[in-house]
Amino acid sequence: MLSIKPLILFSLFLLGICNHSYAQNYKSPGKTFLAANRSSQSLGIFRPKSPAPTIYGKSAIVIDARTGSALFSKSADQKRAVASTQKLMTALLSLEKGHMHEPVKVASTDTHVEPSKIYIQAGQTYRKSDLIAALLVRSGNDVARCLARNHSGSQKSFSYAMNQKARSLGMHSSNFLNPHGLTASGQYSTARDMSKLARVAYFHRTIRSITSLKKLPFRFANGKRKTFNNTNKLLSKSPYCNGLKTGYTRASGNCLISSGKNGPREVIVVVLGSNSSNIWKDSEKLMHWALGI
Fold it and tell me: Cα–chain-centroid distance for residue 245?
């Protein structure tokens, strides 16, 4: 069985989750989430005094991560394709079921998907934690299919689980049909709905620790080693950014869900329907504005 790489182990150790059982791990994010809600009542909501910057993205929302309150929105309830940002849901569901270090064997059907792929091969076995890390950092569509099948037995059954979870999170304007976000007729979400998913992901310590990594050392089952760069370039552009997930298809345009922190202020920014030259500018401007920078 493959060992999780030192960088991931170190990140998880710092967050205090390596020496607990999975059941303990999964209870912790919920407690943290509720604690954040309680503390927000006394801390209040920071609202920037200056007007929000103008952005190119077609839909967007900025929320206070602690309270979920919207600080800015632009067509936030418009139904749109959200591409790979929905992999946050795939990761969340994968972490909810079973043990994060359990072995996962790749099936041939997992590899029948368009790029972006990391090219895992049928018959190979990986720890689930390694696959989740590759899913969130490198955004492998083959990894998404593998995790979905491992969770629910089929892509169709997993999409049902995604939609059930979405409803439980109050995402009532979303419909997910696959685990990776490739374009599918009838699949959509909104900036507001995705901010609800992002807020839960942000307070999930495993997801948060992985999505904050700029680089991920990865060892394939055949012994080959590779270092994946995080698709979220805002991690390198802004010292305040600490996650979360990118997305792109022709139908969705460039999408980014990003999180940022400045002292006690924590925000989540969702930008959908931007382009390659503006997605990073859009997200950075909104994040820095919301953080009072």
Answer: 4
Annotated active-site residue 185? The verdict is no
Q: Residue 156: CB partners within 8 Å, gap ≥ 6?
A: none
Helices 128-137, 87-96: crossing angle, 10 deg rounding: 160
pLDDT at 49: 87
Per-residue model confidence (pLDDT) at position 43: 53
Average pLDDT over residues 251-272: 97
The active-site residue, picked from 11, 28, 59, 84, is: 84
pLDDT of residue 46: 79
Residue 178: count of CB within 10 angstroms of its CB: 21
Q: Report the distance separating Cα 189 and Cα 227, nearest Å.
A: 32
Query: Which CATH code for domain 6-290?
Result: 3.40.710.10
Decide if 281 is catalytic. Answer: no
The answer to whether 114 and 182 have CB atoms below 8 angstroms apart is: yes
* Residue 39 clears pLDDT 50, i.e. is over it: no
- Structure confidence at residue 98 (pLDDT): 93
| Distance between CA atoms of residues 29 and 277, nearest Å | 35
Q: What residues does each domain of the chain span?
A: 6-290
- Quick check: helix, strand or coil at residue 48? coil
- Do residues 55 and 285 make contact, with C-beta atoms less than 8 angstroms apart? yes
Catalytic residue among 87, 117, 128, 196: 87
Q: Which of 139, 152, 159, 189 is catalytic?
A: 139
Average pLDDT, the chain: 89
Whether 258 is catalytic is: no
* 213, 215, 264 from 126: Cα distances, Å: 20, 19, 38
Cis peptide before 244 (omega within 30 of 0): yes
